[in-house]
Automatic annotation (TrEMBL):
Superkingdom to which the source organism belongs: Bacteria
Annotated SUPFAM superfamilies: AhpD-like (SSF69118)
Organism whose genome encodes this protein: Saccharothrix carnea
Native organism taxonomy: Bacteria, Bacillati, Actinomycetota, Actinomycetes, Pseudonocardiales
Pfam families: CMD
Region forming the signal peptide: none
Key words, A-Z: Oxidoreductase, Peroxidase
Protein name: AhpD family alkylhydroperoxidase
């Protein structure tokens, strides 16, 4: 596959990606557990079919010590027994927030209430931002057909 747009050579794209990366770094600086954040990014990227981000977040999670079995089960998290109740609530919020157009009322109240049982206000704000940011990255990559899924090296963020 060949990219439709050079995201790293186009001045507008570079500027937008830098702002998205800056927003991403705000989320990283919160007390939302890093493992939970990677699981959420991975699940949203799976739902959106963003191969580049699935590759990146799988490898980043592995590099940070995440268990390969858990990562292989993110796509089937509802049936998997390897996630905590808090992680399941986070994965549900990530999935529902990503599929927002599929639900007439947006994210269901019970999904939000379940997340709020496990996470405080700062963490919930970080989760909302994380979902918005990863969905933006996914959409940019999918629309522009960013190639090279499989080539990502952990710790080598692009911006």
């Amino acid at each position: 596959m060949e990219a439709r747009l050079d995201l790293f050579g186009n001045p507008v794209a570079v500027k937008v990606l830098k702002y998205l990366t800056s927003a991403h770094n705000v989320v990283v600086g919160t007390k939302l557990p890093a493992t939970t954040a990677e699981l959420m990014r991975l699940r949203a990227s799976q739902v959106n079919g963003c191969a580049f981000c699935v590759d990146m977040h799988t490898k980043e999670a592995l590099h940070a010590g995440e268990d390969p079995v858990r990562l292989s089960l993110v796509a089937a998290w509802r049936e998997a027994t390897v996630f905590t109740e808090a992680e399941r609530a986070a994965l549900d919020l990530a999935e529902q927030g990503t599929r927002i157009a599929d639900a007439a009322g947006g994210v269901p109240d019970e999904v939000w209430a379940n997340a709020a049982k496990h996470y405080d206000e700062e963490q919930l704000a970080a989760m909302v931002a994380l979902i918005a940011i990863i969905n933006a990255f996914n959409r940019v990559n999918v629309i522009a057909q960013l190639p090279h899924a499989g080539d990502y090296e952990p710790g080598k963020a692009l911006l």
